[in-house]
Amino acid sequence: MHRPLAWLALCVASSKALEDVGERGFLLVATSTTLERLWTYEARAEKGDLHQIDHFDDLGAVLRDICRTSFRARLIVGTPKEAAKAERVLPCEQISVAPLEVDEHRRLEVAPLDIEHRRLTDLEHRRLGKIDIRLRFFKVDAILKGLDYAFPGGTLYIDNDGAIRRDGVDGLFAMFDAMRKEKKAVGLQIAYTCLPKDHETKVPESFCERNGGVMFLGDAGKAREILERWSEELRAHPSKDGHDQVSLRTVLFDFRDDLYDLHPVVQHLGVRADVCKRVDTRKGPTLPHLWHEHHHGRLKFSQSPFARRNSLVDAQGLVCGFVP
Fold this sequence. Notes:
The chain is an alpha/beta fold and 324 residues long. It is 43% helix and 15% strand. The protein is built from 14 helices and ten strands. The protein has a seven-stranded mixed beta sheet with strand order 3-2-1-4-7-6-8, sandwiched between helices. The protein starts with a helix and ends in a 15-residue tail after the last helix. Keywords: Signal. This is Nucleotide-diphospho-sugar transferase domain-containing protein.
Protein backbone atom coordinates (compact mmCIF):
# COMPACT_ATOMS: atom_id res chain seq x y z
CA MET A 1 0.00 0.00 0.00
CA HIS A 2 1.38 3.43 -0.98
CA ARG A 3 1.53 6.11 1.70
CA PRO A 4 0.71 9.76 0.85
CA LEU A 5 3.78 11.99 0.54
CA ALA A 6 2.43 14.25 3.28
CA TRP A 7 2.34 11.26 5.65
CA LEU A 8 5.94 10.38 4.81
CA ALA A 9 7.04 13.98 5.33
CA LEU A 10 5.36 14.00 8.74
CA CYS A 11 7.16 10.81 9.75
CA VAL A 12 10.54 12.23 8.67
CA ALA A 13 9.89 15.45 10.57
CA SER A 14 8.79 13.54 13.68
CA SER A 15 11.87 11.30 13.56
CA LYS A 16 14.15 14.33 13.20
CA ALA A 17 12.45 16.02 16.16
CA LEU A 18 13.09 12.95 18.30
CA GLU A 19 16.75 12.86 17.22
CA ASP A 20 17.21 16.55 17.98
CA VAL A 21 16.19 16.03 21.61
CA GLY A 22 19.38 14.10 22.36
CA GLU A 23 20.14 11.45 24.97
CA ARG A 24 18.64 11.73 28.42
CA GLY A 25 19.93 10.12 31.56
CA PHE A 26 20.21 10.02 35.35
CA LEU A 27 22.60 11.82 37.70
CA LEU A 28 23.41 10.59 41.21
CA VAL A 29 25.97 11.54 43.87
CA ALA A 30 27.48 9.48 46.68
CA THR A 31 29.71 10.06 49.71
CA SER A 32 32.24 7.45 50.82
CA THR A 33 29.87 6.16 53.51
CA THR A 34 27.19 5.57 50.90
CA LEU A 35 29.71 3.82 48.64
CA GLU A 36 30.87 1.58 51.49
CA ARG A 37 27.45 -0.02 51.66
CA LEU A 38 27.43 -0.55 47.89
CA TRP A 39 30.86 -2.21 48.04
CA THR A 40 29.70 -4.49 50.85
CA TYR A 41 26.62 -5.56 48.88
CA GLU A 42 28.53 -6.27 45.67
CA ALA A 43 31.21 -8.20 47.56
CA ARG A 44 28.51 -10.49 48.96
CA ALA A 45 26.92 -10.76 45.52
CA GLU A 46 30.14 -12.20 44.07
CA LYS A 47 30.06 -14.90 46.75
CA GLY A 48 26.35 -15.53 46.25
CA ASP A 49 25.72 -14.48 49.83
CA LEU A 50 22.69 -12.19 49.62
CA HIS A 51 20.41 -13.74 52.20
CA GLN A 52 21.06 -10.73 54.42
CA ILE A 53 20.01 -7.58 52.59
CA ASP A 54 21.68 -4.35 53.65
CA HIS A 55 18.53 -2.39 54.43
CA PHE A 56 20.55 0.83 54.50
CA ASP A 57 22.06 0.48 51.02
CA ASP A 58 20.03 3.19 49.26
CA LEU A 59 22.52 3.65 46.42
CA GLY A 60 22.71 0.01 45.40
CA ALA A 61 18.93 -0.26 45.21
CA VAL A 62 18.47 2.76 42.93
CA LEU A 63 21.42 1.78 40.71
CA ARG A 64 19.89 -1.65 40.17
CA ASP A 65 16.60 0.09 39.29
CA ILE A 66 18.43 2.12 36.65
CA CYS A 67 20.07 -1.01 35.29
CA ARG A 68 16.59 -2.35 34.54
CA THR A 69 15.94 0.62 32.23
CA SER A 70 17.45 1.61 28.87
CA PHE A 71 18.89 4.86 30.26
CA ARG A 72 22.44 5.63 31.31
CA ALA A 73 23.54 7.31 34.53
CA ARG A 74 26.45 9.37 35.85
CA LEU A 75 27.56 8.84 39.45
CA ILE A 76 29.65 11.57 41.09
CA VAL A 77 31.80 10.52 44.06
CA GLY A 78 34.31 12.32 46.25
CA THR A 79 37.78 11.28 45.10
CA PRO A 80 39.52 9.56 42.16
CA LYS A 81 40.30 6.63 44.48
CA GLU A 82 36.61 6.22 45.31
CA ALA A 83 35.74 6.46 41.62
CA ALA A 84 38.19 3.69 40.70
CA LYS A 85 36.87 1.44 43.44
CA ALA A 86 33.23 2.17 42.58
CA GLU A 87 33.79 1.26 38.93
CA ARG A 88 34.73 -2.28 40.00
CA VAL A 89 31.42 -2.93 41.77
CA LEU A 90 28.83 -1.12 39.66
CA PRO A 91 25.85 -3.38 38.88
CA CYS A 92 25.85 -2.65 35.12
CA GLU A 93 27.75 -0.89 32.34
CA GLN A 94 25.08 1.79 31.94
CA ILE A 95 26.58 3.67 34.90
CA SER A 96 29.76 5.73 34.66
CA VAL A 97 31.63 7.33 37.57
CA ALA A 98 33.50 10.61 37.95
CA PRO A 99 35.17 12.22 41.01
CA LEU A 100 34.26 15.58 42.46
CA GLU A 101 37.32 17.79 42.07
CA VAL A 102 36.99 20.64 44.56
CA ASP A 103 39.52 22.92 46.14
CA GLU A 104 41.13 22.01 49.45
CA HIS A 105 38.97 24.44 51.44
CA ARG A 106 35.76 22.73 50.39
CA ARG A 107 37.30 19.29 50.79
CA LEU A 108 37.90 20.06 54.47
CA GLU A 109 34.26 21.07 54.84
CA VAL A 110 33.07 17.72 53.53
CA ALA A 111 35.61 15.24 54.88
CA PRO A 112 34.50 14.92 58.57
CA LEU A 113 30.96 13.84 57.79
CA ASP A 114 31.79 10.24 56.90
CA ILE A 115 33.02 9.47 60.41
CA GLU A 116 29.86 10.53 62.18
CA HIS A 117 27.06 10.34 59.60
CA ARG A 118 26.23 6.63 59.97
CA ARG A 119 22.63 5.52 60.40
CA LEU A 120 21.65 8.61 62.34
CA THR A 121 18.17 8.78 63.82
CA ASP A 122 15.97 11.78 63.10
CA LEU A 123 16.77 13.11 66.56
CA GLU A 124 20.51 12.76 65.95
CA HIS A 125 20.14 14.53 62.60
CA ARG A 126 18.60 17.49 64.40
CA ARG A 127 21.36 17.50 67.03
CA LEU A 128 24.09 17.28 64.38
CA GLY A 129 22.72 19.84 61.95
CA LYS A 130 26.17 21.00 60.88
CA ILE A 131 27.09 17.52 59.70
CA ASP A 132 23.85 17.36 57.77
CA ILE A 133 24.71 20.70 56.15
CA ARG A 134 28.08 19.30 55.09
CA LEU A 135 26.23 16.58 53.28
CA ARG A 136 24.23 19.28 51.52
CA PHE A 137 27.45 21.04 50.53
CA PHE A 138 28.68 17.83 48.95
CA LYS A 139 25.39 17.19 47.21
CA VAL A 140 25.16 20.60 45.55
CA ASP A 141 28.84 20.64 44.54
CA ALA A 142 28.58 17.12 43.14
CA ILE A 143 25.49 17.98 41.08
CA LEU A 144 27.43 20.93 39.70
CA LYS A 145 30.24 18.55 38.74
CA GLY A 146 27.69 16.26 37.13
CA LEU A 147 26.68 19.07 34.78
CA ASP A 148 30.13 18.69 33.19
CA TYR A 149 28.70 15.41 31.86
CA ALA A 150 25.16 16.65 31.23
CA PHE A 151 23.04 14.62 28.85
CA PRO A 152 22.08 16.81 25.86
CA GLY A 153 18.39 15.91 26.04
CA GLY A 154 18.13 16.44 29.79
CA THR A 155 19.75 15.25 33.02
CA LEU A 156 17.56 13.89 35.80
CA TYR A 157 19.09 14.19 39.26
CA ILE A 158 17.58 11.93 41.93
CA ASP A 159 18.54 11.36 45.57
CA ASN A 160 19.76 7.87 46.43
CA ASP A 161 16.71 7.15 48.59
CA GLY A 162 14.35 6.64 45.68
CA ALA A 163 12.87 3.73 43.77
CA ILE A 164 11.97 3.89 40.08
CA ARG A 165 8.76 2.21 38.96
CA ARG A 166 9.67 -0.31 36.30
CA ASP A 167 7.08 0.75 33.75
CA GLY A 168 7.12 4.45 34.67
CA VAL A 169 10.56 5.52 33.46
CA ASP A 170 9.42 6.70 30.02
CA GLY A 171 6.71 8.83 31.60
CA LEU A 172 9.32 10.19 33.99
CA PHE A 173 11.65 11.41 31.22
CA ALA A 174 8.68 12.73 29.24
CA MET A 175 8.64 15.59 31.77
CA PHE A 176 11.54 17.07 29.79
CA ASP A 177 9.21 17.39 26.79
CA ALA A 178 6.75 19.41 28.88
CA MET A 179 9.60 21.62 30.08
CA ARG A 180 10.84 22.22 26.54
CA LYS A 181 7.34 23.15 25.44
CA GLU A 182 7.14 25.75 28.21
CA LYS A 183 10.76 26.83 27.61
CA LYS A 184 11.78 26.13 31.19
CA ALA A 185 15.33 25.27 32.25
CA VAL A 186 14.80 23.25 35.45
CA GLY A 187 11.90 21.27 36.88
CA LEU A 188 11.19 20.61 40.57
CA GLN A 189 8.16 19.55 42.55
CA ILE A 190 6.40 21.80 45.04
CA ALA A 191 7.04 20.52 48.56
CA TYR A 192 4.21 18.81 50.44
CA THR A 193 4.46 21.52 53.10
CA CYS A 194 4.59 24.88 51.34
CA LEU A 195 6.60 26.69 54.01
CA PRO A 196 7.64 24.79 57.16
CA LYS A 197 7.95 26.60 60.45
CA ASP A 198 11.23 28.53 60.89
CA HIS A 199 11.91 28.41 57.12
CA GLU A 200 10.74 31.97 56.50
CA THR A 201 13.04 34.27 54.52
CA LYS A 202 12.71 37.50 52.54
CA VAL A 203 10.97 35.48 49.80
CA PRO A 204 7.16 35.99 49.71
CA GLU A 205 5.28 33.30 51.63
CA SER A 206 3.18 32.53 48.55
CA PHE A 207 6.28 31.06 46.86
CA CYS A 208 6.50 27.51 48.22
CA GLU A 209 9.59 25.41 48.83
CA ARG A 210 10.53 22.81 46.24
CA ASN A 211 11.75 19.29 46.86
CA GLY A 212 15.43 19.13 45.93
CA GLY A 213 15.56 15.33 45.84
CA VAL A 214 14.39 15.17 42.23
CA MET A 215 15.57 17.80 39.75
CA PHE A 216 15.04 17.86 36.00
CA LEU A 217 17.99 19.78 34.56
CA GLY A 218 16.96 20.55 31.00
CA ASP A 219 19.17 23.52 30.16
CA ALA A 220 22.64 22.66 31.49
CA GLY A 221 23.92 26.23 31.22
CA LYS A 222 21.06 27.79 33.17
CA ALA A 223 21.04 24.86 35.61
CA ARG A 224 24.72 25.50 36.33
CA GLU A 225 23.96 29.15 37.06
CA ILE A 226 21.21 28.13 39.48
CA LEU A 227 23.36 25.48 41.20
CA GLU A 228 26.27 27.88 41.62
CA ARG A 229 23.96 30.39 43.27
CA TRP A 230 22.51 27.64 45.44
CA SER A 231 25.97 26.56 46.59
CA GLU A 232 26.81 30.14 47.55
CA GLU A 233 23.49 30.72 49.32
CA LEU A 234 23.69 27.41 51.20
CA ARG A 235 27.09 28.33 52.64
CA ALA A 236 26.22 31.98 53.31
CA HIS A 237 22.87 31.32 55.00
CA PRO A 238 22.64 27.71 56.26
CA SER A 239 19.32 26.84 57.86
CA LYS A 240 19.09 26.01 61.56
CA ASP A 241 17.75 22.51 60.91
CA GLY A 242 20.36 21.59 58.30
CA HIS A 243 17.98 21.34 55.35
CA ASP A 244 18.81 22.75 51.93
CA GLN A 245 15.27 23.74 50.88
CA VAL A 246 15.56 27.15 52.55
CA SER A 247 18.50 28.28 50.43
CA LEU A 248 17.07 26.55 47.37
CA ARG A 249 13.80 28.44 47.74
CA THR A 250 15.67 31.76 47.92
CA VAL A 251 17.54 31.00 44.69
CA LEU A 252 14.58 29.58 42.81
CA PHE A 253 12.54 32.67 43.54
CA ASP A 254 15.14 34.72 41.67
CA PHE A 255 15.02 32.20 38.80
CA ARG A 256 11.27 31.61 38.90
CA ASP A 257 10.87 32.41 35.19
CA ASP A 258 13.12 29.40 34.44
CA LEU A 259 11.32 27.07 36.87
CA TYR A 260 8.89 24.36 35.84
CA ASP A 261 6.63 22.90 38.55
CA LEU A 262 6.55 19.14 38.09
CA HIS A 263 3.31 17.19 38.03
CA PRO A 264 2.52 15.32 41.31
CA VAL A 265 2.78 12.02 39.39
CA VAL A 266 6.57 12.39 39.35
CA GLN A 267 7.10 11.09 42.88
CA HIS A 268 5.46 9.88 46.05
CA LEU A 269 7.26 10.89 49.23
CA GLY A 270 7.24 8.62 52.29
CA VAL A 271 5.96 5.18 53.26
CA ARG A 272 2.26 5.91 53.43
CA ALA A 273 -0.03 3.48 51.64
CA ASP A 274 -0.92 5.99 48.94
CA VAL A 275 2.27 5.04 47.06
CA CYS A 276 -0.23 2.80 45.25
CA LYS A 277 -2.72 5.61 44.74
CA ARG A 278 -3.05 6.71 41.13
CA VAL A 279 -2.66 10.38 40.20
CA ASP A 280 -4.85 12.04 37.58
CA THR A 281 -2.93 12.89 34.39
CA ARG A 282 -3.86 13.61 30.79
CA LYS A 283 -3.42 9.90 30.05
CA GLY A 284 -5.71 8.95 32.92
CA PRO A 285 -5.00 7.80 36.50
CA THR A 286 -1.30 6.88 36.77
CA LEU A 287 0.88 5.46 39.53
CA PRO A 288 3.77 7.66 40.76
CA HIS A 289 6.96 7.27 38.72
CA LEU A 290 9.25 7.50 41.78
CA TRP A 291 8.90 6.38 45.37
CA HIS A 292 11.02 8.75 47.46
CA GLU A 293 11.74 6.86 50.67
CA HIS A 294 14.80 5.13 52.13
CA HIS A 295 15.42 1.52 51.13
CA HIS A 296 14.88 0.23 54.67
CA GLY A 297 11.55 2.11 54.89
CA ARG A 298 10.33 0.63 51.60
CA LEU A 299 11.34 -2.88 52.66
CA LYS A 300 9.64 -2.48 56.02
CA PHE A 301 6.44 -1.31 54.33
CA SER A 302 6.50 -4.19 51.83
CA GLN A 303 6.76 -6.67 54.70
CA SER A 304 4.09 -5.02 56.84
CA PRO A 305 0.79 -6.78 57.58
CA PHE A 306 -1.00 -3.74 56.13
CA ALA A 307 0.66 -4.10 52.72
CA ARG A 308 0.05 -7.86 52.62
CA ARG A 309 -3.51 -7.59 53.88
CA ASN A 310 -4.38 -5.05 51.20
CA SER A 311 -2.64 -6.96 48.40
CA LEU A 312 -0.16 -4.15 47.72
CA VAL A 313 2.68 -6.63 47.15
CA ASP A 314 2.58 -8.95 44.13
CA ALA A 315 4.02 -12.45 43.72
CA GLN A 316 7.39 -11.00 42.64
CA GLY A 317 7.60 -8.84 45.78
CA LEU A 318 6.91 -5.60 43.91
CA VAL A 319 4.92 -2.85 45.61
CA CYS A 320 2.72 -1.44 42.85
CA GLY A 321 5.52 -1.86 40.32
CA PHE A 322 8.34 -0.71 42.63
CA VAL A 323 11.18 -2.93 43.80
CA PRO A 324 11.23 -2.06 47.51
